[in-house]
Amino acid sequence: MIVSTVSSGICDRIAMALYAYHIARAAGKEFIFIWQENNYCNCPFERLFQPTDKMTVLPRGPFGEVTPGSLHNRIEAAKSTEGVVYIGGVAYYGHDFTDMDRLFIPSIEVTSIVDAFRSENWQPLMIGVHIRRTDKSYQQPPSVEQYVRVVNSLANHRPECGVFLATDDEEVLTEFQRLWKGPLCHFPARTLLRSEPDGIVDALATLYLLRSTNVVVGSLASGYSICAGWNTGFIDVPFGSSENYAWDAQPLRMKPPNEKLFPHSYRIANSITIPHSPTPRREAVLGVFDAAYVISCPATRHREMKVSKELGRIGLKAARFPAVPPSHEEGSSCSPSERSLTLSNIEIVRRAKAEGCRSVLILEDDVVFKEQFCVTWESIQPKIAQLNYDLLYFYDWADGDTHYEPCIKSINGTLCTHAFAVSVSFFDKYIEQLTAHYRTSALDRILDSIDARKYAIVPNLAGQEGGPSSISGYWPKLRWSMNDG
């Protein structure tokens, strides 16, 4: 059988299921999709969709090693494997979107919401517009004016049409209302929180409202736009630094708008230019890393104050990353805090990848640095700049105090994850492996078992502060290596 899951939002789940279903069908295998209720999509499958005989949906199930490789290699592996083939960590928006309507049939609740809104607000001809912000805001999104410019070009040929706007930003709605003078409707979601079941129901209803328009103006940077516009007719208003890809890692080719409904839409779609300002040159963190994040819990501020002071002492500029909230998952052998840390790491590396970073430094909020850090770093930095690594630790937890001259040594693995860097060469595998194992292994154990080019700076430059962790609640003493207990 083929077993698949993804822990992120609803359209990533649709994409993952389509990808794995394609493999299962090509290999002649049963398909099971694990629908996790978590802070990214906290709603049961059966409230959102009707049952289907194309796949079995379970709230939990077998997890195992991710089958690596391209689509072709995964199909071949599925054909030759008798047991469970686990497909995870992929959210490509594939070719065979027709299966979306076979696997995902909206529930009666969702359909009723869609029908009721359409009966009150729909014009004979509708332009759907999806403008994504919030967690995509750092990827150079187009301005509202640029979306309105496209809508005006379409409406010039069909002045009787109305607009349905879907957005996760109230300021976008206000700005669109100011710029667009024609009929406009917007679905009043009960909440935009993904952790609320009603918010997920309304998000899905909004998706199907977009799908019922006559053309969708959105962006290939957003899986939501893709799922809404694949068979509707799609005009891409591109982001500056992000794009999704098809199963074969080639650019997506969406169905064009209907030229009979919207004359010259092909010309409109191909004339879009986005006047982005040049991307500012990155100021390298510690002279070698493109970005740095420190993970902390929003509920506890004492760690933030300490770690901010510690980072300032050594001149390390790191953005604060709120930890993914811990949640209980039945059948998981990891604690909620362990899963929180691993999921936070996944999101950080996803962000680094989307921003085009070549490396990212990940810190926990209990990190401390040796007094001689700056002096040692000055001697070690040129070596790091020349190093081809996948993972670079600021310590070797088991053997970091036995070296007297600062150096970088190759290691098989180490424990703890309070200060380490991930290279762009390892981003995809990092996301894939952590997604596959976050329920069954703590982060440091996952990284310890992965085949990668691992290095450590010794003597150890980083340790763990004593006192309660804002992520785990654990209260250790100050430690520079495992020899400290």
Per-chain topology:
Elements: E1 2-5, H1 10-27, E2 31-34, H2 45-48, E3 56-58, H3 71-80, E4 85-88, H4 100-103, H5 108-121, E5 126-131, H6 144-155, E6 162-167, H7 170-179, E7 184-185, H8 197-211, E8 215-218, H9 223-229, E9 234-236, H10 265-270, E10 291-296, H11 302-314, E11 319-322, H12 336-354, E12 359-364, E13 367-369, H13 373-385, E14 391-393, E15 407-411, E16 419-423, H14 427-437, H15 443-449, E17 454-458, E18 462-464
Helix pairs in contact: 1-3, 5-8, 8-9, 12-14
Task: Describe the structure using short key phrases.
485 residues; alpha/beta; Rossmann fold; seven-stranded mixed beta sheet
Question: Would you write up a description of this structure?
Answer:
The protein is α/β, with parallel strands linked by helices and 485 residues long. The chain folds into three domains: 2-102, no CATH class; 107-270, Rossmann fold (3-Layer(aba) Sandwich), CATH 3.40.50.11350; 291-484, Spore Coat Polysaccharide Biosynthesis Protein SpsA, Chain A (Alpha-Beta Complex), CATH 3.90.550. The protein is 34% helix and 16% strand. It is built from 15 helices and 18 strands. The strands form four sheets. Strands 11-10-12-16-14-17-15 form a seven-stranded mixed beta sheet, sandwiched between helices. A five-stranded parallel beta sheet has the order 7-6-5-8-9, with helices on both faces. It has a four-stranded parallel beta sheet with strand order 3-2-1-4. β1, α1 and β2 (31-34) form a beta-alpha-beta unit. α5 (108-121) crosses α8 and α12 runs antiparallel to α14 (427-437). It is globular, with a radius of gyration of 24 Å.
